[in-house]
Amino acid sequence: MNYAAQLVDLMVQVMLPLSLLVCAGALWPRFFPDTDVEQMRSSLNRLVMYLFYPCILFAVASSTPLSRELLSVPLLVGIGSLVSGAVLYVLLYKLPLWPRLTDPTRAALMVGGMFGNTFNIGAPVLVFFFGAEAIRYAVFNDMLMTMPLVWTLGVWICTRLGSHERGGARPSVLGIMLTMPPIWAFLLGFACQQTGLTYEPLVKATQFIGQATIPVILFVLGMTIPWRNLVPRGEILAVAGVKLLLTPFIIWLVAPLIYPRMAEAQYAAVVEGTTPVMMTALLLADRFKLDASAAALMIGWSTILFWLTLPLIMAFGWIGRN
Question: For residue 37, is it within any domain?
Answer without folding.
Answer: yes
